[in-house]
Amino acid sequence: SAVISQKPSRDICQRGTSLTIQCQVDSQVTMMFWYRQQPGQSLTLIATANQGSEATYESGFVIDKFPISRPNLTFSTLTVSNMSPEDSSIYLCSVEDPGTYEQYFGPGTRLTVT
Amino acid sequence: GQQVMQIPQYQHVQEGEDFTTYCNSSTTLSNIQWYKQRPGGHPVFLIQLVKSGEVKKQKRLTFQFGEAKKNSSLHITATQTTDVGTYFCAGQNSGYALNFGKGTSLLVTP
């Protein structure tokens, strides 16, 4: 399985600011995903990020609020823009094994917006 | 769209008792995956089921995929305190992202 790291691991941000979360994988992968998990809740997919194309956003999530970059096959960023307290959550990136479709998750970024 | 329902939401057992969580999809799945998330941790992949009627075992864990490929279960025999966590099922149709159930939080009392 892939080894995935995320930065930062946690942050406390002020309302109205933006935070960029980085996701680094130790191998080249085609499919990367960004999820949000609010405390005690399940995982909600924000978007799918494929290298060389625009990210595909799920219903309820828009590019202006959650811009994503995918410059190469081992790296992606998710920006949470113009943050509000409702954006407080854990943000997780994951990658998909192209042969098995199994997904592996990074350790997550715990965001608190005050 | 595809919905994945998971029950129960919570389960509290005494150590040594068995535990089962059930997952149902509104549509036929190409595969279903199970994850475990410890408190404060991130989801960790457990297993993937692909074939109709498939049964897979990992030590005390038994995973089943229904004949219609719309439901699945995870059964833990003789729970231990190390089994504590939230178990998520996630259904997938070919080429699409995973759709996670709400999870079952398991608490095991010694």
Major sheet attributes of chain B: 6 strands, mixed
**Overall residue-averaged pLDDT value of chain A:** 94
Oligomer: heterodimer
Q: Looking at the structure, what is the overall shape of chain A?
A: globular
Order of helices and strands of chain A: EEEEEEEEEEE
How many beta-strand segments of chain A?
Answer: 11
Radius of gyration of chain A: 13 Å
Estimated helix fraction of chain B? under 10%
Radius of gyration of chain B using CA atoms only: 13 Å
Regions of chain B with pLDDT < 50 over 5+ consecutive residues?
none
Query: Which band does the percent of strand residues of chain B land in?
Result: over 45%
User: How many strand units of chain B?
Assistant: 11
Structure annotation, total helices of chain A: 0
Q: Portion of residues in helices of chain A?
A: under 10%
| Percent of residues in β-strands of chain A | over 45%
Major β-sheet of chain A, in short? 7 strands, mixed
Which descriptor suits the 3D outline of chain B? globular
H-E string of chain B: EEEEEEEEEEE
Structural class of chain A: mainly beta
What is this structure's SSE topology?
The complex is a heterodimer of chains A (114) and B (110).
Chain A: E1 4-7, E2 10-13, E3 19-25, E4 31-37, E5 43-50, E6 56-57, E7 68-72, E8 75-80, E9 89-96, E10 103-105, E11 109-113
Parallel strand pairs in A: 2-11
Antiparallel strand pairs in A: 1-3, 3-8, 4-5, 4-9, 5-6, 7-8, 9-10, 9-11
Chain B: E1 4-7, E2 10-14, E3 19-25, E4 31-37, E5 44-49, E6 55-58, E7 61-65, E8 71-76, E9 85-92, E10 99-100, E11 104-109
